[in-house]
Amino acid sequence: MEPAPPTTPVERLVGVYHADGTLLGELRYWFGARLGRAHCALCDITHGTFRAKPEWVEGRDGLGMRFETVHLDERDAALVAATDGATPCVVALTADGWVELLGPDELEALHGDVAALFLAVRARAADLGLALGRVDGPGE
């Protein structure tokens, strides 16, 4: 017997970095990461040393649905409530509110692999009965 198809539509995906997005926050994170004092597994997936990884941009832009990333200081009140103390993470917005797809441990286990992120998002959404747009990543 095949599993039931996903029934709850996802409006958008959001990845929350474990860093502030201000110039000072970005510099603090960049230097802290190089000194081993700051770490964000989502940053490792989406960014190289100085800019976004091309495979991240290509995969995100080819989703068929919105997948944005925000920093800690860029979250609205509802997103803060859903993600506070659990960053970095990837969450899905549904009609019922925010649903966590991947938390800090799951993102860390991806070891910076962009394609693995898209696979993990798809698998977790399916486990939760969430209907995504076309969530493809590089190489799929």
Number of helices: 6
CATH architecture: 3-Layer(aba) Sandwich
Radius of gyration: 15 Å
**Biggest beta-sheet profile:** 4 strands, mixed
Describe the structure concisely.
With 140 residues, the chain is of the alpha/beta class. It has helices at 23-34, 41-46, 54-61, 77-83, 104-108, 114-127; strands at residues 8-9, 12-16, 67-70, 89-94, 97-102, 130-131.
Describe this structure in words.
The protein has one domain: Glutaredoxin (3-Layer(aba) Sandwich). The longest helix is centred in the C-terminal third of the chain and has 14 residues, at 114-127. It has a four-stranded mixed beta sheet with strand order 3-2-4-5, with helices on both faces. It has a two-stranded parallel sheet with strand order 1-6. It has helices at 23-34, 41-46, 54-61, 77-83, 104-108, 114-127, and strands spanning 8-9, 12-16, 67-70, 89-94, 97-102, 130-131. The protein is an alpha/beta fold and 140 residues long.
